[in-house]
Amino acid sequence: MKLEDVPKKNIFDVPDGYFEKLPGMIQARTSGSTTDLAPAWGLPVLRYALGVAGVVAVVASIWWWGGPQGSVEDQLGKIETTDLVAYLEEADMEAEELVDAISWTEVDSDELEEVVYEDILSTSAPEDEFWDGDELP
Description:
The chain is mainly α. It has helices at residues 18-32, 42-66, 72-77, 81-90, 95-101, 106-122.
């Protein structure tokens, strides 16, 4: 059987005068019902108050739990030196690249110089190990 052989029949049947009576039926249903509405001041105020309370709760939780946990120096101080060395070795960065990547201020340079000199002076060698200038050790 082919599609062309199927008889064409309109299976939908609309009662006589249905569309002429439809607006009157809709109006009768809507005008006859009266519902108690909430006061005009109650619902919108509650909606806005809940919205503001939600925003305040989100901001407070971010501030309370997600805020900074100390200064950057404190956080970096908690990292073990071996972990830093392992990271730098894995990143294939040379010392010159690290020095170039840092923007040094005069205060930073002075503090670094002071730390290096203190380290050198604190590790004193016995007198006989110093080079006297005559021959190479």
